[in-house]
Write a structure and sequence with these properties.
alpha+beta
Length: about 70
């Protein structure tokens, strides 16, 4: 098993890095809650705004379901 401990703050990601998956085309996202002004796309797609926020307090689930290929 591979493991990497990462910092809790947002990291910088180069938009042109090779090897990134096209989530818009390859996956469906399921979430338990979403603030209308901070949709999940803001967290998963580069250049998409201010990040995701839940509409309800408490523990949240974000699930990515990839299409079979």
């Amino acid at each position: 098993m591979r493991k990497r401990i990462i910092g809790q703050g947002p990291g910088e990601v180069a938009a042109a890095e090779p090897g990134w998956l096209d989530l818009e085309r390859l996956a469906e996202v399921e979430i338990t809650s979403e603030d209308v002004d901070h949709p999940i796309e803001s967290a998963l797609i580069l250049r998409m705004g201010s990040g995701w926020r839940a509409a309800q307090p408490g523990e949240q689930t974000i699930r990515l379901r990839f299409d079979e290929r």
